[in-house]
Design brief:
The protein has 335 residues and is of the alpha+beta class. 30% of the residues lie in helices and 35% in strands. It has helices at 7-15, 20-30, 34-57, 61-69, 75-93, 250-253, 267-278, 303-313; strands at residues 98-99, 116-121, 126-130, 136-139, 143-148, 156-161, 163-167, 176-179, 183-187, 191-196, 202-208, 211-217, 220-227, 232-236, 241-245, 259-266, 281-284, 293-299, 316-323, 326-333.
Length: 335
């Protein structure tokens, strides 16, 4: 058995274009040492990441890798290329890292209707969209943004379902409006985060500048709160009331920079955020104690890392199970 493997064979393995004999050859090579096996596992990870990139941006990854395979690479060059793709893949795949998807428009998800565009950020990804006025929007996982192809009229109106961070291009003459189902946020040029819960409750966190929170009744808007930098406003839809907090604002905005921040959050709130971020479902035992509060900052964390932290500080155990295509994590209490 030869000591090395042809780079062309590795490229064909990544592109999925190899023959059965070639697959046997590379698998035999991988079995020769732990280093070879680990290298092939890394290549397999990249194969999956490239497929995801292709699905997101309609890049023909197989053709791209076919072109790669037609080139002559020495081992060092290919390993450098592998390292580069791993860095790219990390930006694309890790749930909490912002992905710059300017004008990200999948045909099935963003069909202009009456001059409007729609962007949906899939599970596990943060998308970045530049609006016609140069406002930058970071759209969190499982969120939807609708905006016009051009801003006309007296205001710049967008519609949001889910969560987004807005860096609004300044214009006092044409205020920027973020409309949710029951409230809206008005700004003229500032940075703020908006999160609408599935039950209609809304949290607005202001990083800089000035914003107004408005209640929407039919087509009428009335100002119900004014935020100062560092404040978060919570709108309770059921009670039709608003409250303000000066709590660490990174708790509400850190996600766009690849962080998860907990600040005296209950286990239920923690698992709710993790479920949304990592596209998992938590199945809790009925007797789980929800009185524990969690505080901590995680930078670009894996789900396993956060769950280990919870297990170390709380008498609970997490068990992964599968339910069809869904990932389910059972939460059991322990003595």
């Amino acid at each position: 058995m030869k000591s090395g493997i042809e780079d062309i064979l590795i490229a064909k393995y990544v592109s999925g274009s190899m023959t059965d004999d070639e697959r046997i050859e590379i698998e035999e090579w991988a079995s020769e040492s732990d280093a070879n096996r680990k290298f092939l596992e890394d290549v397999s990870d990249i194969r999956r990441d490239i497929d995801m990139l292709s699905a997101m941006s309609r890049i023909d990854s197989r053709m791209a890798w076919k072109k790669v395979s037609e080139k002559s690479w020495n081992k060092s060059s290919f390993r450098n290329l592998l390292s580069l793709w791993k860095n790219v893949a990390a930006v694309i795949v890790l749930p909490l890292l912002a992905v710059s998807l300017y004008a990200f428009m999948k045909n099935s998800e963003s069909v202009p209707a009456g001059g409007w565009n729609e962007v949906i950020s899939p599970y596990g990804l943060v998308s970045t969209v530049v609006l016609p006025d140069s406002t930058v929007v970071h759209l969190n996982s499982k969120s939807r943004l609708r905006y016009p192809s051009e801003f006309n009229g007296k205001e710049r109106l967008v519609e949001l379902e889910g969560e987004a961070y807005f860096d609004v291009a300044a214009s006092r003459e044409y205020p920027f409006i973020v409309a949710c189902s029951s409230v809206a946020v008005r700004a003229t040029g500032t940075e703020f985060n908006v999160f609408e819960h599935e039950n209609g409750d809304v949290a607005v966190s202001l990083c800089d500048g000035h914003v107004e929170l408005m209640r929407i009744i039919d087509e009428d808007r009335s100002v119900i709160g004014v935020l100062s930098p560092g404040q978060t406003a919570f709108y309770d839809k059921a009670g039709n009331k608003i409250s303000l907090s000066d709590q660490n604002i990174e708790k509400y905005t850190g996600w766009k920079d690849g962080m998860i921040v907990f600040a005296e959050d209950s286990l239920g709130d923690v698992l709710g955020r993790l479920a949304r971020t990592y596209d998992v479902h938590f199945d809790l035992d009925a007797d789980i104690d929800d009185s524990y509060l969690y505080t901590g900052t995680f930078e670009s964390p894996s789900l396993d890392r956060i769950l280990r932290y919870i297990e170390m500080t709380t008498p609970v155990t997490f068990v992964r199970v599968t339910s069809g295509t869904d990932m389910v994590i059972e939460v059991h209490g322990r003595e």
